[in-house]
Amino acid sequence: MIRVQAVPEAATAIRTSGLSKRYRRVTALNDATITVPEGRISALIGPNGAGKTTLLRLLAGLTRPTGGEMTVNGGTPRQDPAFLAGIGFLAQEIPLYRRLSAEDHIRAGAHLNPCWDGESVRERLAALRIPLDCAVGTLSGGQRAQVALALVLAKRPRLLLLDEPVAALDPLARRNFLAILADAVAAGGLTVVLSSHLVADAERVCDHIIMLAVSRVRLYGDIDTVLAEHQILVGPRKDTSAIERDHRVIQVTRTPRQVTMLVRRCGPVIDPAFQASDVSLEELVLAYMGQDPPPTLARLTSIGDDE
Amino acid sequence: MTWLVWRLHRTQLYIAAALLAALTVLLLVTGLQMASKYHSALAACAASHGCANLASTLFLGSHAVGFGVIMTLGVPALFGLFWGAPLVASELETATSQFAWMQSVTRKRWLAVTAGWMLLAAAAWGGAVSGLVTWWSGPDNALQLDQFKPGRFDIMGIVPVGYALFAMALGLCAGALARRTLPALAVTLAGFIVVRSVVTLWLRPHYISAVTVTYNLFSGYTPAGSYWQLAQGIRNPAGQLVPAPNGAAIDGIPLGYLPSACAAAGKGGPPTASCRQALAAFHGFITYQPASRYWAFQGIEFGIFAALAALLIAVTAVVLLRRDV
């Protein structure tokens, strides 16, 4: 007897469908359909201008979509205190009032949020030896980023949207911050989406990935699943149409003697001529992004190509 | 929200308070001097029954302070430029809007509280300056009867409060649309000057239909109190307007327009009886707004600018709530 048990779908923090944002002439985001389950740390990866900021701003409700739908924390982004309380958003510009001190920002947060942990900010900044009473404008870029990150965490949001949060931090501060994020997520009730163009950051703490290139979502999902779905196939240079029919070929590199393919598998690869190996996140990201790869890479991989 | 508004703008308020205090001291000191000078002059002329030409013989105060008082015409524009225009524009320009608007406070509430307090501050400061100027100008108004005239009307009573509200709302709206401080400043200044000029020159004379009085040239006519004269002139018996004299004239009529009976008088001789009779057919007229309408006009003009301010705030709200920020 087979017992069918309804598997409860994991709660989703973000679900978008066909989400688009067109400005007068440019399309910043085109037909984006993604899902981010609750409790993930998702890396939003893509080259500059891929639409990462647009996607984050749409999710935060700062920008209105021109097409498609989205559900964030169970609702549509809107101007409503309850919705806003559930979202923490940190823009790339690290927006802080330059003439106000960190302490002023902490007090402002206490006045503006129903659930505010100002003490955590004071502790973190004290540990980082960042003065609380100096105008924020006099702090270094990295210190400002630390203040802004501490403030956005103090809001205790359910969903944290961070636009290039670690760009201004030194490697050690970057590592510490990512560790803090991981702890906060582990404590429960928090989902994070952080944009970056560095795969190394994503590999360190993220368990989910959204890959954007040229305003389109190329790939999204749990990193483990995504990696398991992809394989590098190396085999003799021969007809590859069978593989191309059965699987989705992301990238092909041909040399006179052999062919290397990165494929998204649909079922097992049964051609014994090909040797399958696992793919690293970095390789995967580069393959998806570099569907026209950088010129140096292109030159190297086409050595001896007789076509 | 109120705390953040206070924290962000308290420096501006301190500066405005200091400037207001300085103006208060200046006007209080000179105003008291003027009042005592006026009252002693009035007592002196009453004793000698010679108060009729007091207005032309007595000069109150100093030119410098008087000029400063006229300059309070520009005070409302300062609220728009220094408080209104940067309010939204600098938030957008420095991206701090993404801090303010991503707390658990809706943009609607942010705008309501911010604009509410800043409009209140503008109204309070505008009202304080206007109150001081109105009090300071009291003796001068009693003497010159000019409080209804453009330039004076605009710095006294309740209209400066309306201008201040309008300038603040204009700055806010320009900032929300331009999204940058400098263009917002330019738009605010230009918009304020244009609207104020249009209202003063073309709308204000028509709030209530003006009164026209036709009078005999020999007796003359002066409306009572601080009236606002819109037009004055002389019409010939055919009802045509006689141009203002630009040279020799009799009773304000240029020689060329005199009736033939006055030909001799035109050459320098005394007006004959027939000339006087012919002149009696000419009439003077004056078109004016009576002094009794002063507060009605103040109320109407205040209402116009308060309504414009409300409209601009509504536009700002639509821009901030409906457009991408």
In words, what does this structure look like?
The complex is a heterodimer of chains A (307) and B (325). Chain A folds into 2 domains: 9-224, Rossmann fold (3-Layer(aba) Sandwich); 226-301, no CATH class. Chain A contains 11 helices and 14 strands. In chain A, strand 9 and strand 10 (216-222) form a beta hairpin. In chain A, 33% of the residues lie in helices and 27% in strands. Chain A is elongated, with a radius of gyration of 22 Å. With 325 residues, chain B is an alpha+beta fold. Chain B has helices at 2-47, 54-57, 63-70, 75-93, 97-100, 107-136, 138-144, 159-178, 181-203, 263-266, 273-280, 294-322; strands at 211-216, 228-235, 241-242, 249-250, 253-254, 283-289. In chain B, strands 1-6-2-3 form a 4-stranded antiparallel beta sheet, with no helix packed on it. A two-stranded antiparallel sheet of chain B has the order 4-5. In chain B, strand 4 and strand 5 form a beta hairpin. In chain B, helix 4 (75-93) packs antiparallel against helix 6 (107-136), helix 4 (75-93) runs antiparallel to helix 9 (181-203) and helix 8 packs antiparallel against helix 9. Chain B is elongated. The two termini of chain B are 19 Å apart. Chain A binds chain B through residues 57, 60, 62-64, 79-82, 84-85, 87-89, 91, 93, 95-98, 100, 104-105, 107-109, 111-114, 148, 151, 155, and chain B through 1-4, 7-8, 94-109, 321-325.
